[in-house]
Amino acid sequence: MSRFEAENEVKSIISEILEECLKRGHSFSETLVAFMVKSVVLNPTNCFNVDRRLTQHDIQRLKQLCLDKLTEDCSPSLDTIKMQLYFDMNYTSRCEFLAEIHRLLDSKLSGLSRGITDIRAKSREDFHALYHQIITYILLRSGTGSPTDLGSVLETDAALESVLPLAELGAFLVLVKKDKEQELRELTMIVTGIRLFIEASKQDEELLGIQTLSMLNILKTGWQGSLHDCQLSYFVGSGHFLPTAG
């Protein structure tokens, strides 16, 4: 039997089971019935040979087993299958979950990121403005403090200075836009790692100054509020955003 013929046969079995369920006063989704058919066929106690084509006797027995399970009253096994189906349809893998978080972060911080990568700093004031923007970006992307919290800003400033001193900011400016974006992500991880290491080395939980270690909390409380707290103001004459310490 070809793959096409096998798929058509399975669809036919599912349709017949759905029709019979309706006759008995039960309404189920096609997905649930398909899941039930699969579970019945793969259950070794039912003795179906998946390596050969089902006979008419096998098909009738398969339909009857599925109907019995689907129409059984107060069936823990049916409830279990429904929960398993719901889990399979809604479960997100760890990689997909983290990728979605990063996608949301990139979306929420796109304006700030664009302001950093597109800037054409020339004066000393422009360089300071850009440096403060990078600090704001690192704090928001890592979720390890508010740009309005002077302590968080100073800690991030010190950590960033050890990686990318203000005097060497020119090396960042000559990068192409894509490389600047990658550099921002790497700086965020490095600076956050430095802050975490310093705080952890204090060996005293009461001294831990990092307010939020989970990006999920930032997403949960709402990025709109978090970004609003940044209190970004225009730097006079430069047209670039600067965070103002609260």
From TrEMBL:
Localisation: Cytoplasm, Cytoskeleton, Cilium axoneme
Any one of the GO BP annotations: sperm axoneme assembly
Key words of the record: Cell projection, Cilium, Cilium biogenesis/degradation, Cytoplasm, Cytoskeleton
Cross-referenced InterPro entries: FAP206 (IPR021897)
Highest taxon listed in the record's lineage: Eukaryota
Gene Ontology CC annotation, any one: ciliary basal body
Main location: cytoplasm
Keyword Cytoplasm among record annotations: yes
Function: Essential for sperm motility and is involved in the regulation of the beating frequency of motile cilia on the epithelial cells of the respiratory tract. Required for the establishment of radial spokes in sperm flagella.
UniProt record similarity statement: Belongs to the CFAP206 family.
Entry protein name: Cilia- and flagella-associated protein 206
